[in-house]
């Protein structure tokens, strides 16, 4: 089979599945041309997705209720470990991803030192002409926030086409059951020292149901996770810089008020209270945010030192 290592290596494709009866059978059949096994995790579907996937040759695991994309990925990881596979590839079952890209993704995963490969829609060679503009803008915002957090420089943090070697499969562990798991996995890669590469892929947007989740809901959930994670990992950036900006703004307004008093008094005193109060409030808020950033930065540094000391003691 194209894209496979010697027979000793076992590759599994995992498909999160929720009401994908129009497309899942075709995706399974095309994946089996390149890998040993296909696992479909049915996340509470109410249609014939499971039956059609099984007929097409997939192993099917059921969630009794719809738990979310992240929950399906966690189940795929657990079963892949139980099956003791060498490589795991996750892609969407709605037909957006082309299984014909599997050999290129697996070839990159087999490069020395590479642990995780992301099929990217934003590399120069990627075919993304059909991607709606609002999706490009939304993903760009999420990419920026995520890369500030992880420093990975990933161009497509929201790609559902990802491959993991045995080392990554055994090290990665994540908790979120929603779409924010796409970023949590990248955070885990940084923490566990896993090398992440990207390869260009083709994505279709003319499929019957291109996404189970609304673009707004998906984007808001993931962006919120990215910003919260950023505030935890880089508090000086999130709190300190805005705090200094507010402090400077408040001071500037306060000085401007004093200049106004000097100009309009003709020997008398007439204070412009409104701008003065505004300046004072901004300055106090800026001081508070700057102090918060410093405290969180110090606390994070202390916790990292304690963790490192404990690790070295074992």
In short:
The protein is elongated, with a radius of gyration of 25 Å. It starts with 10 loop residues before the first strand and ends with a helix. By secondary structure, it is α/β, with parallel strands linked by helices.
Give a written overview of the molecule.
The protein has 314 residues and is of the alpha/beta class. It folds into two domains: 223 residues, Spore Coat Polysaccharide Biosynthesis Protein SpsA, Chain A (Alpha-Beta Complex); 79 residues. The protein contains ten helices and seven strands. It has a seven-stranded mixed β-sheet with strand order 3-2-1-4-6-5-7, sandwiched between helices. Helix 1 links the parallel strand 1 and strand 2. Helix 8 crosses helix 9. The longest helix has 41 residues. The chain is elongated. The N terminus and C terminus are likely disordered.
Q: Superfamily at the CATH H level of the largest domain?
A: Spore Coat Polysaccharide Biosynthesis Protein SpsA, Chain A
Q: Mean pLDDT across all residues, rounded?
A: 75
Largest sheet: 7 strands, mixed
Task: Supply the CATH architecture of the largest domain.
Answer: Alpha-Beta Complex
Low-confidence stretches: 1-7, 212-219, 310-314
The ordered H/E elements are EHEHEHEHEHEHHEHHH
Measured distance between first and last alpha carbons? 44 Å
How much strand? 5-15%
């Amino acid at each position: 089979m194209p894209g496979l290592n010697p027979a000793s290596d076992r590759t599994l494709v995992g498909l999160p599945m929720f009401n994908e009866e129009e497309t899942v059978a075709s995706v399974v059949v095309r994946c089996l041309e390149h890998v040993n096994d296909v696992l479909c995790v049915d996340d509470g579907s109410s249609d014939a997705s499971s039956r059609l996937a099984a007929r097409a040759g997939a192993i099917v695991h059921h969630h009794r209720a719809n738990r979310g994309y992240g929950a399906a990925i966690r189940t795929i990881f657990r079963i892949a470990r139980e099956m003791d596979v060498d490589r795991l590839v996750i892609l969407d079952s709605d037909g957006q991803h082309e299984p014909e890209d599997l050999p290129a993704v697996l070839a990159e995963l087999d490069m020395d030192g590479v642990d995780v490969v992301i099929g990217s829609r934003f590399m120069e060679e990627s075919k993304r002409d059909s991607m709606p503009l609002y999706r490009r803008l939304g993903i760009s915002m999420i990419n920026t926030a995520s890369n500030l957090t992880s420093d990975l420089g990933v161009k497509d943090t929201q790609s559902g086409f990802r491959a993991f070697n045995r080392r990554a499969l055994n090290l990665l562990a994540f908790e979120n059951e929603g779409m924010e798991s796409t970023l949590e996995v990248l955070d885990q890669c940084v923490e566990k020292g896993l090398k992440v590469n990207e390869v260009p892929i083709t994505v279709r947007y003319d499929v019957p149901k291109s996404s189970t989740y609304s673009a707004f809901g998906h984007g808001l959930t993931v962006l919120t996770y990215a910003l919260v994670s950023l505030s935890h990992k880089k508090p000086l950036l999130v709190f300190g810089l805005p705090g200094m900006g507010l402090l400077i703004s408040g001071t500037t307004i306060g000085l401007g008020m004093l200049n106004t008093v000097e100009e309009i008094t003709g020997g008398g005193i007439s204070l412009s209270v409104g701008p003065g109060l505004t300046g004072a409030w901004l300055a106090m808020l800026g001081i508070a945010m700057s102090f918060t950033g410093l405290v969180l930065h110090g606390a994070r540094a202390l916790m990292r030192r304690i963790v490192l000391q404990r690790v070295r003691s074992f």
